Amino acid sequence: MLQKPAITLSSLDLERIEALLDKTTTAFPGRDQLEAELDRADVLDPQNMPPNVVTMNSTVQFTILETGKASTLTLVYPREMDGGGDKVSVFAPVGIALLGLTVGDEIQMPSPTGQVTVRVDAITFQPESAGELHR
Protein backbone atom coordinates (compact mmCIF):
# COMPACT_ATOMS: atom_id res chain seq x y z
CA MET A 1 0.00 0.00 0.00
CA LEU A 2 1.22 3.47 -0.84
CA GLN A 3 2.01 5.83 1.98
CA LYS A 4 -0.53 8.64 1.98
CA PRO A 5 0.89 11.90 0.65
CA ALA A 6 0.60 15.04 2.75
CA ILE A 7 -2.51 17.07 2.01
CA THR A 8 -3.22 20.78 2.28
CA LEU A 9 -6.64 22.38 2.76
CA SER A 10 -7.71 25.99 2.83
CA SER A 11 -9.23 27.08 6.11
CA LEU A 12 -12.40 28.08 4.22
CA ASP A 13 -12.79 24.63 2.61
CA LEU A 14 -12.15 22.92 5.96
CA GLU A 15 -14.78 25.04 7.74
CA ARG A 16 -17.37 24.42 5.02
CA ILE A 17 -16.78 20.67 4.83
CA GLU A 18 -16.89 20.32 8.63
CA ALA A 19 -20.16 22.30 8.71
CA LEU A 20 -21.63 19.98 6.05
CA LEU A 21 -20.55 16.92 8.01
CA ASP A 22 -22.16 18.36 11.17
CA LYS A 23 -25.45 18.84 9.27
CA THR A 24 -25.33 15.45 7.53
CA THR A 25 -26.96 13.00 9.91
CA THR A 26 -27.06 10.08 7.49
CA ALA A 27 -24.00 7.95 7.00
CA PHE A 28 -22.40 7.79 3.56
CA PRO A 29 -19.63 5.52 2.31
CA GLY A 30 -16.34 7.21 3.01
CA ARG A 31 -17.48 9.51 5.80
CA ASP A 32 -14.88 8.11 8.20
CA GLN A 33 -12.21 8.41 5.50
CA LEU A 34 -13.16 12.04 4.79
CA GLU A 35 -13.05 12.90 8.50
CA ALA A 36 -9.62 11.23 8.79
CA GLU A 37 -8.34 13.24 5.81
CA LEU A 38 -9.57 16.49 7.37
CA ASP A 39 -7.84 15.59 10.64
CA ARG A 40 -4.44 14.97 9.00
CA ALA A 41 -4.46 17.98 6.67
CA ASP A 42 -2.17 20.99 6.86
CA VAL A 43 -4.42 24.05 6.84
CA LEU A 44 -3.57 27.36 5.14
CA ASP A 45 -5.43 30.60 4.61
CA PRO A 46 -6.92 30.68 1.08
CA GLN A 47 -4.60 33.50 -0.03
CA ASN A 48 -1.58 31.34 0.89
CA MET A 49 -2.69 28.25 -1.06
CA PRO A 50 -0.08 27.00 -3.55
CA PRO A 51 -1.48 26.78 -7.11
CA ASN A 52 -0.65 23.07 -7.46
CA VAL A 53 -3.02 21.89 -4.66
CA VAL A 54 -6.52 20.49 -5.28
CA THR A 55 -9.01 22.69 -3.43
CA MET A 56 -12.78 22.81 -3.53
CA ASN A 57 -14.07 23.93 -6.95
CA SER A 58 -10.74 23.04 -8.58
CA THR A 59 -10.84 21.32 -11.96
CA VAL A 60 -8.45 18.37 -11.83
CA GLN A 61 -6.98 16.06 -14.44
CA PHE A 62 -6.19 12.67 -12.91
CA THR A 63 -5.48 9.10 -13.93
CA ILE A 64 -6.52 5.76 -12.42
CA LEU A 65 -3.17 4.02 -12.75
CA GLU A 66 -4.44 0.43 -12.85
CA THR A 67 -6.60 1.11 -15.91
CA GLY A 68 -4.83 4.11 -17.44
CA LYS A 69 -8.19 5.91 -17.54
CA ALA A 70 -7.71 9.69 -17.46
CA SER A 71 -10.50 12.01 -16.32
CA THR A 72 -11.07 15.70 -15.74
CA LEU A 73 -13.55 16.63 -13.00
CA THR A 74 -14.36 19.63 -10.82
CA LEU A 75 -14.38 18.91 -7.07
CA VAL A 76 -17.64 20.29 -5.63
CA TYR A 77 -19.83 20.27 -2.54
CA PRO A 78 -22.69 17.72 -2.65
CA ARG A 79 -25.36 20.38 -3.28
CA GLU A 80 -23.56 21.40 -6.50
CA MET A 81 -23.90 17.96 -8.10
CA ASP A 82 -26.24 18.36 -11.06
CA GLY A 83 -26.09 14.98 -12.77
CA GLY A 84 -23.55 16.14 -15.33
CA GLY A 85 -20.45 14.07 -15.80
CA ASP A 86 -17.99 16.88 -15.17
CA LYS A 87 -18.22 17.13 -11.36
CA VAL A 88 -17.40 14.93 -8.40
CA SER A 89 -18.64 15.43 -4.85
CA VAL A 90 -16.18 15.76 -2.00
CA PHE A 91 -18.34 13.06 -0.33
CA ALA A 92 -17.56 10.54 -3.14
CA PRO A 93 -14.52 8.24 -2.88
CA VAL A 94 -12.63 9.93 -5.73
CA GLY A 95 -13.50 13.37 -4.33
CA ILE A 96 -12.19 12.39 -0.91
CA ALA A 97 -9.04 11.01 -2.54
CA LEU A 98 -8.35 14.15 -4.60
CA LEU A 99 -8.99 16.75 -1.88
CA GLY A 100 -5.77 18.47 -0.81
CA LEU A 101 -3.42 16.55 -3.10
CA THR A 102 -0.62 18.21 -5.05
CA VAL A 103 0.05 17.70 -8.75
CA GLY A 104 2.04 14.47 -9.09
CA ASP A 105 0.70 12.90 -5.88
CA GLU A 106 -0.71 9.37 -5.90
CA ILE A 107 -3.16 7.90 -3.40
CA GLN A 108 -5.09 4.67 -3.11
CA MET A 109 -8.87 4.76 -2.88
CA PRO A 110 -11.60 2.14 -2.67
CA SER A 111 -13.36 1.00 -5.84
CA PRO A 112 -15.96 -1.68 -6.57
CA THR A 113 -13.10 -4.04 -7.51
CA GLY A 114 -10.87 -3.27 -4.51
CA GLN A 115 -8.25 -0.52 -4.25
CA VAL A 116 -7.12 1.66 -7.14
CA THR A 117 -4.42 4.31 -7.32
CA VAL A 118 -5.27 7.86 -8.38
CA ARG A 119 -2.57 10.23 -9.66
CA VAL A 120 -3.14 13.99 -9.96
CA ASP A 121 -1.82 14.99 -13.39
CA ALA A 122 -2.77 18.68 -13.54
CA ILE A 123 -5.02 21.36 -12.10
CA THR A 124 -6.60 23.36 -14.91
CA PHE A 125 -8.47 25.71 -12.57
CA GLN A 126 -8.04 26.51 -8.89
CA PRO A 127 -10.22 29.25 -7.36
CA GLU A 128 -7.49 30.53 -5.04
CA SER A 129 -5.00 31.09 -7.89
CA ALA A 130 -7.78 32.83 -9.84
CA GLY A 131 -8.27 35.25 -6.92
CA GLU A 132 -11.62 33.72 -5.93
CA LEU A 133 -10.86 33.42 -2.22
CA HIS A 134 -14.45 33.35 -0.93
CA ARG A 135 -16.33 31.30 -3.52
From TrEMBL:
<dbReference type="GO" id="GO:0032784">
    <property type="term" value="P:regulation of DNA-templated transcription elongation"/>
</dbReference>
<dbReference type="InterPro" id="IPR001437">
    <property type="entry name" value="Tscrpt_elong_fac_GreA/B_C"/>
</dbReference>
<dbReference type="InterPro" id="IPR029462">
    <property type="entry name" value="Rnk_N"/>
</dbReference>
<dbReference type="GO" id="GO:0070063">
    <property type="term" value="F:RNA polymerase binding"/>
</dbReference>
<protein>
    <submittedName>
        <fullName>Regulator of nucleoside diphosphate kinase</fullName>
    </submittedName>
</protein>
<feature type="domain" description="Regulator of nucleoside diphosphate kinase N-terminal">
    <location>
        <begin position="5"/>
        <end position="43"/>
    </location>
</feature>
<dbReference type="Pfam" id="PF01272">
    <property type="entry name" value="GreA_GreB"/>
</dbReference>
<keyword id="KW-0418">Kinase</keyword>
<dbReference type="GO" id="GO:0016301">
    <property type="term" value="F:kinase activity"/>
</dbReference>
<dbReference type="Pfam" id="PF14760">
    <property type="entry name" value="Rnk_N"/>
</dbReference>
<dbReference type="GO" id="GO:0006354">
    <property type="term" value="P:DNA-templated transcription elongation"/>
</dbReference>
<dbReference type="InterPro" id="IPR036953">
    <property type="entry name" value="GreA/GreB_C_sf"/>
</dbReference>
<dbReference type="InterPro" id="IPR023459">
    <property type="entry name" value="Tscrpt_elong_fac_GreA/B_fam"/>
</dbReference>
<keyword id="KW-0808">Transferase</keyword>
<dbReference type="GO" id="GO:0003677">
    <property type="term" value="F:DNA binding"/>
</dbReference>
<feature type="domain" description="Transcription elongation factor GreA/GreB C-terminal">
    <location>
        <begin position="50"/>
        <end position="124"/>
    </location>
</feature>
